[in-house]
Amino acid sequence: MAERRNTYRHKLWYSAGLKMLLAVIVGMSFFLLILYLRQEKMIFFPQPVSGQTLNRIRSNAKNTEEISIRTGDGTIVRGWLVKKTDSAKLPLVIYFGGNAEEVSWLIDEAERFGGWALALINYRGYGSSEGVPGERQLLADALSIYDFFSARSDIDREKIAVMGRSLGSGVAVYLTHKRPVKGLLLITPYDSMIRVAQEKFPFLPVSLLLRHRFDSLSLAPLITQPMLALVAAEDTIIPPHHAKRLAESWAGPVTFVVIKGADHNSLDSHDQYWQSIKDFLSQLLPDASNGVGAFSSGIKACLPVTVAGKVLPNSF
């Protein structure tokens, strides 16, 4: 009788254990399904542009043109072109913002880009642009934006640079791979979205779940244009080693600047940030005396790291 009772108890425990395991599996599967289906809500944070901001730009922003671009699938993205002068052919910087950035704020900073015109087009779903953001859509839109501006008579298509901040660094890298670009400026860049997410969520099968991969690392060895990487030393959102890995794989010349005391969202409050941009853009334009750009003989080699204006060895 005792043996029968023990056997019965073992069966009960075994059955309860199976049910508990099944509940955990079902619960985890449901959790992963929700993450998969709602990942856009965790990656993209569209920001509107207020009517007050639009009115202020229309009233006060000098040399600023409102731009509407119909992309390949018919979605219209909107933004601005800021030109310092009315020269016949201007060099152009095309800017791609972060995942929670409405880009009109840069209109007030356009003077910092020297003689370069500045194209500020909000992602679909951001500002007054139509549509819903996603990796495939943003990358395709970047090509439409480039093609639109390169076809304009007031833009020098041989002198187009691209600039991407955070999420936008992946868009900028992709565009540089697909179109003729003079150089690119990457602000708090990453190697790939998968690597960043794996580091933050090591307990999740990120590589299986993530649809929006923004894999800049795979393109880096294929790109020979000069690149400026501006990195925040105290960045906890995209830690600096992600940018370093990208820079180490880059096929072209790299200027790698780490700004001490800056975090992911405060980088542009440091003078070194704007000075680095100014210096890099001036080097992209050909030297009048010999017709050769400053990067023509540049070598990536040691990846100089600049902190507070001092060149340090290749380390963090």
How would you write the strand order of the largest sheet? Answer: 1-2-4-3-5-6-7-8-9-10
CATH superfamily of the largest domain: Alpha/Beta hydrolase fold, catalytic domain
- Into which percentage range does the β-strand content fall? 15-25%
- Form type: globular
Q: Can you count the helices?
A: 10
CATH structural fold name of the largest domain? Rossmann fold
Rg result:
24 Å
| Secondary structure category | alpha/beta
Give the ordered list of helices and strands: HHHEEEEHEHEHHHEHEHEE
Q: Fraction of residues in helices?
A: 25-40%
- How far is the first residue's CA from the last residue's CA? 71 Å
CATH architectural group of the largest domain:
3-Layer(aba) Sandwich
What's the short story on this structure?
The protein is built from ten helices and ten strands. It is of the alpha/beta class and 316 residues long. It is globular and about 80 Å long.
Describe this structure in words.
Helix 9 (240-249) links the parallel strand 7 and strand 8. The chain contains 10 helices and 10 strands. 38% of the residues lie in helices and 19% in strands. The protein is globular and about 80 Å long. Residues 288-293 and 296-316 have low confidence and may be disordered. Helix 4 crosses helix 5 (167-178). It folds into 2 domains: 1-37; 47-312, 3-Layer(aba) Sandwich (Rossmann fold).
